[in-house]
């Protein structure tokens, strides 16, 4: 039964696949999310030294979830030394990012997994979609970008965006893709490069919506706030401007119900099965 005001149940967006159940941003996580029945898979992308679009939340190997090619853990103080932007993708594939369970997700089932290329994820999910006989899945692609990382952990914004857009175009998933980013520079470039591509401004601070939109310079199709920032007033303000609301990352049943009452367009969650159970 829908709990939303509009009578429609929001889209279920699997965060990093289904981080609560499988290693984040890996093929096992995306496959499980698809089997569960998500409407969209949310994933993060960065760029390797040889300009491959790699699915990863950090532009380095996280000490919390990744292991060295030798199988040994990565010291937290050394994580950023394993800079994906300075590693060719063949080298990146030698690290494991699935065998170490994330400490915040006790239900996560560890298994061997690498950081895949965006093209690998899409090819795998498109094939699985056909096998399952289900409707095509949508893609929420977050470009990880920070001004302080330019030239160190990522290429300049224009090059970073161009690499990601070229991959999305080659994969023929543009009509089913929304581009997400905290970095307004990326969204501004994308707005002019591909006016028809839905863009999502991600928000994690307490700056008023008007301030964010003024700095952005245009009205995005979607706004994705940290759900802890979400109020009925913000939801109404977004609805009044015809901006779709897709908050992140909503995991606990009580929080899911509270967010559902605000009638979002979608909800991003590490536990898609919990949200799907409410549908």
TrEMBL record:
Superkingdom of the source species: Bacteria
Classification via Gene3D superfamilies: Phosphatidylinositol (PI) phosphodiesterase
Domain GP-PDE: 10-279
Organism, as annotated: Hymenobacter lapidiphilus
One GO term of the biological process aspect: lipid metabolic process
Record's protein name: Glycerophosphodiester phosphodiesterase
A GO MF label: phosphoric diester hydrolase activity
InterPro entries: GP_PDE_dom, PLC-like_Pdiesterase_TIM-brl
